[in-house]
Amino acid sequence: MDKFIITGQKKLSGTVKINGAKNHALKVMAASLLTDQSFIIKKIPNIEDVLRMKELLRGVGCDIDETKNTSFTTKKVFNHVLDKKIVPRLRSSVLLLGPMLARNRKIILPHPGGCAIGKRPIDIFIDGFKSMGVKIKENFDHYSFGINTPLKGCDFIFNKISVTGTETMLMAACLAQGKTTLINAACEPEIAALAEFLNKCGAKIKGAGTPKLEIIGVEKLIGGTCEIIPDRIEALSFAILGVATNSKITITNCCTDHLAVPLNILQQIGAKMIITDNTITTLPHGPLLAKDIATHEYPGFPTDGQAPLTVLLTQAKGISFVAENIFENRFIYTDMLNKMGANIQILNQQKISIKGKTRLKGKNVESPDLRAGIAMIIAALIAEGQTEIGNIYQIDRGYEKIDQRLIKIGADIKRVK
Ligand code: EPZ
């Protein structure tokens, strides 16, 4: 298994360019199944989750041409059984439910399985597609979804906000018969971006980016060209890295509008930053102050920034509290931070306390999920001595060439087999 070896406390400075958003690219790629014409998608990040999604799409009949711009064309769905080797490794496989049911009226989904951050159930997806007339059977190792007619538009209320649940039902509704209303939908900017593009392809979607969506089903969609929006979570990860290492780092090609709350919280902790529409420059700062943080659906503080922020709070004077309100098991990395010298208490499944400021020492750690992985990298960059981070496939899932980009700003990081 590959690992990173990092020697901490190097002076960092320079520029980091943000890539296209993983959590926008994966959705547009899945949506390409909705039409037999081509989706040309620009600025797709070159990360493991994108490679897995390409494998999954090719497996159902999508032709992907990467000679010039990357185009996705599914003239015909020739297989409705998703690859059982890929689905458990790619939670976003569930996105294919919508477009496959809209286009092909049936799909076999191997159990997606949980992951490090939680069980990751799909009850919302099952309720949602039942409301559209889909028959669903759960077998011991897969779900089968099927309908003999076109999907039926429906009024669906999300009892719990689900990002991919919103997105996959939105895609299905584009080609359903009649009108679909989605209430308590997720409001992430990637959803608004997806809807804006699908409307250019002939869909009739209103309200994307707000808790209420109205979609009028149409006969078919045409192809189009989509440019992936900047990755707000990658930008936040690098901003926290810059603050935590007390460095002057300029983060370019980001959309700071999508980060209003997290950037405001960083400033309240004591971060010094110059923020423009599409750049963030972190500057050396004075003592950091403890803070109470709670993760929240967009536009609140994102759960994907929770682990990196916790590393930062180990460097803040006083006792901080972090409440994780989205996933039920997203503090698993804290014992490794404590091994490095942090003083974190797990108060309950949803809440931790962090007593700072603590010196961190390099240790051998693992990367349980991609966001805990970048958090371990940040911890290693501020720790004394050498840190080894294992299971870095998890980091490569969401951060393109992270080692090369860190070396460019002065980090001492090596990728070893
Ligand atoms: C998306 O995951 C993101 N992934 C996640 O980013 C992100 O953390 C999450 O939204 C929350 O913002 C992608 O967009 C590919 P949810 P998603 O459905 O859609 C529960 C990353 O690091 N739930 O909004 O899978 C669920 O267990 C990843 O890039 C049900 O109970 O998350 C969670 O507690 C990690 N039943 C809550 O809802 C369901 O059927 C929110 O999950 C579905 C979800």
Explain the overall architecture:
- By secondary structure, the chain is α/β, with parallel strands linked by helices.
- It is built from 13 helices and 24 strands.
- The protein has helices at residues 22-31, 48-60, 97-104, 123-131, 163-174, 189-200, 232-244, 260-269, 306-313, 334-339, 370-382, 393-396, 402-408, and strands at 3-7, 13-17, 38-42, 63-65, 70-73, 106-110, 135-138, 142-146, 155-157, 179-183, 204-206, 212-216, 224-227, 248-252, 272-275, 279-283, 288-289, 292-294, 316-323, 344-348, 351-356, 364-366, 386-390, 412-416.
- The strands form six sheets. Strands 17, 18, 19, 20 and 21 form a five-stranded mixed β-sheet that branches. Strands 22-23-1-24 form a four-stranded mixed β-sheet, covered by helices on one side. Strands 2-14-16-15 form a four-stranded mixed β-sheet.
- The protein starts with a strand and ends with a strand.
- The model has no long low-confidence stretch (mean pLDDT 97).
- Ligand EPZ is lined by residues 22-23, 26, 91-92, 118, 120-125, 160, 162-165, 303-304, 326-327, 370-371, 398.
Topology:
Elements: E1 3-7, E2 13-17, H1 22-31, E3 38-42, H2 48-60, E4 63-65, E5 70-73, H3 97-104, E6 106-110, H4 123-131, E7 135-138, E8 142-146, E9 155-157, H5 163-174, E10 179-183, H6 189-200, E11 204-206, E12 212-216, E13 224-227, H7 232-244, E14 248-252, H8 260-269, E15 272-275, E16 279-283, E17 288-289, E18 292-294, H9 306-313, E19 316-323, H10 334-339, E20 344-348, E21 351-356, E22 364-366, H11 370-382, E23 386-390, H12 393-396, H13 402-408, E24 412-416
Parallel strand pairs: 2-14, 3-13, 9-10, 17-19, 18-19, 22-23
Antiparallel strand pairs: 1-23, 1-24, 3-5, 4-5, 6-8, 7-8, 10-12, 11-12, 14-16, 15-16, 19-21, 20-21
Helix pairs in contact: 1-2, 1-6, 3-5, 5-6, 7-9, 7-11, 9-11
This protein binds ligand EPZ.
